Amino acid sequence: MSKLYLYYHGGSKNHGCEAIVRSTAKLLQPNHLTLYSSGIDDDCKYGIDKIVSLKNDSYHLDNLNGLQLLKASAMHKLTGTDYYFYTYGHNLFFEDVRKGDVCLSIGGDNYCYKGQDILGYYNKKLHKIGAKTVLWGCSVEPDAITDSIVKDLASYDLIIARERISYNFLKNINKNTYLFCDPAFQLDSNQKPLPDGFIDGKTIGINASPLAAKYGNKKLFSENYHELVQYIIDKTDYQVALIPHVVQEGNDDRTTLRELYDSFSDKSRIVMVSDADCTVIKGYISRCKMFIGARTHATIAAYSSCVPTIVTGYSVKAKGIACELFGTDENYVVPVQSLTDSYGLKNAFIWMIENYSQIKIHLNSIIPDYKMSILQSKELINQLL
């Protein structure tokens, strides 16, 4: 019997990755899923081992014999490809896969960035084994797609794109491309007690990330968040909740949010939310009046809870998802690359407050049906199995 595998997962300290795993397991039940992860300890910390089987997919070359190492080195020198290094280095995964198995690449936005060669190595090796591959809930940055990546994308047995910009691009490459919402729109919300100072329906949730800051002017990025919080404190009666969504070393939202928190001498209306699993974080976000976020799956937690949301975006995924929901990204996405002063985010907030009722009504009307679209993907996966 064919098996169903999830791969290219870096661990649940990125709660967006965790959200994809949890929602995918929910969507594809009663199929049993095995998750190959390079961060098993982190996955266990957040309870992922309770919903899928966990296996290690950390890159290692310890078990290579001399012939394998020689072959990998020779191919690197002759062709510049690291295919053999990666396929040997991830052999714990590849040795488990059999002909007919279905393997979902769950990175989502990995084709938005440089370094996609490794995804192609996985895809090529899995097809050599006779497995079928799915690019799951993805966005792609067309400008980052080279001829070799086009060939890679064309070979997937199924692609599920989460927004129309990527769908239109991918459909011209691979006819087995479908447009559904991100699977994390189906993520459950865990309504834990709110932290002290977090008032249900009277709190503005804010997420900022060091990754987003890198795509623009870091100084302007910080100033925009500071001006936003200052405006909320001075001109409204809302509380402010700073909510991290990625807590990986070197890419930790808490670093950026702590700097923002520390920049205010009076912190009586500002709450630093502690780390938790993604369902608990969604529970917090769902009780915000409004949400401003940089991390895609933090904003998806808000959208799917019908919370009016501003995205401090830096790639096609932010624009694409906003366009799916509103028909435009104008006023809903503040591209960090386009910040020219300290007030862009504050001005977007003012606009959303002024238009809040219409936005809330719109989300309440479209989200229930919109988030059901991903359910259709189950039949496509079952057809592959």
Structure description:
This protein has about 375 residues and is of the alpha/beta class. Helices cover about 45% and strands about 15% of the residues. The protein has a 7-stranded parallel β-sheet with strand order 3-2-1-4-5-6-7, with helices on both faces. A 5-stranded parallel β-sheet has the order 12-9-8-13-14, sandwiched between helices. Strand 2, helix 2 and strand 3 form a beta-alpha-beta unit. The radius of gyration is 21 Å and the shape is globular.
Physical arrangement of strands within the biggest beta sheet: 3-2-1-4-5-6-7
Helix percent band:
40-55%
CATH topology of the largest domain: Rossmann fold
Count the helices. How many? 17
Question: Which helices and strands appear, and what pairs or packs with what?
Answer:
Layout: E1 4-9, H1 15-28, E2 33-37, H2 40-45, E3 53-56, H3 66-79, H4 83-89, H5 91-94, E4 102-105, H6 117-129, E5 132-138, H7 147-154, E6 158-161, H8 164-171, E7 177-179, E8 203-206, H9 210-214, H10 218-235, E9 239-242, E10 247-248, E11 251-252, H11 253-262, E12 270-272, H12 278-286, E13 290-293, H13 296-304, E14 309-311, H14 316-326, H15 344-354, H16 356-370, H17 377-384
Parallel strand pairs: 1-2, 1-4, 2-3, 4-5, 5-6, 6-7, 8-9, 8-13, 9-12, 13-14
Antiparallel strand pairs: 10-11
In short:
By secondary structure, the protein is α/β, with parallel strands linked by helices. The protein has helices spanning 15-28, 40-45, 66-79, 83-89, 91-94, 117-129, 147-154, 164-171, 210-214, 218-235, 253-262, 278-286, 296-304, 316-326, 344-354, 356-370, 377-384; strands spanning 4-9, 33-37, 53-56, 102-105, 132-138, 158-161, 177-179, 203-206, 239-242, 247-248, 251-252, 270-272, 290-293, 309-311.
